[in-house]
Amino acid sequence: MKRKEAQNFQESIANSSLNEQFRILRTNITFTTSQGKKIFLVTSGMNSEGKSTILANLAISFSQQGKKVLIIDADMRHPTQHRLFNKMNHIGLSTILSGQHTFEEAIQSIEEPHNMHIITSGVIPPNPSDLLSTSVFKDFLQKCRDRYDYIFIDSTPLIQLSDAKIVMKEVDSSILVIRANRTTKTTLLKCKKILDGVNLSLSGYILNDVKEKKYNKKYYLN
Ligand SMILES: Nc1ncnc2c1ncn2[C@@H]1O[C@H](COP(=O)(O)OP(=O)(O)O)[C@@H](O)[C@H]1O
Ligand SMILES: [Mg+2]
Question: Measured from the CB, is residue 17 less than 6 Å from ligand 1?
Fold first, then answer.
């Protein structure tokens, strides 16, 4: 993640309700992992609700605990993770799934924290949902499962596009991101219906971007 961006976001986590939410989510995820689940889809109904940002920070926090963590950017329409971590993106998931590169050729290390790896989206393909529907994607995920403690998958929004729904069939659990003052009740209900429809467990949710009220802080300080 770009240093300033990461620092800003981590400061905003430290000083907000996100800190407590992250703590609860990490506990839930750790519990889920003890049941053998390790592949998590971070999802939300629409674009710009904070999926990619939350995912990057969640992955960093597990990596800081010494876990082997992999980020996969399966949002092959609006990929973000390569920019957050300042990585090249001409080789990645799309080029693995289309048979142009191997897993080993596509994997990139994130120097700080040192246990983390990333597979970026790769060049934007014309047919993301077709690529995700192949058995190559299943085999690829199995390879990831054998090598990492935690795998976090970024994807397109749940509503309107089919990509995330295809990915959902291959993951162990999901994490739902809701953006305060942006995610509508209708969107949330649609997400719940989609998650229930595939019987995918929800490890937790994050209510992102809650504006802390100054008078609350003052109240507690006094
Ligand atoms: N809690 C937050 N505070 C401020 N900006 C945020 C927050 N969460 C996300 N953003 C910003 O909102 C934009 C969309 O976030 P992103 O993580 O890319 O969403 P998504 O992956 O759901 O499309 C980005 O510019 C990101 O930096
Ligand atoms: Mg995103």
Answer: no
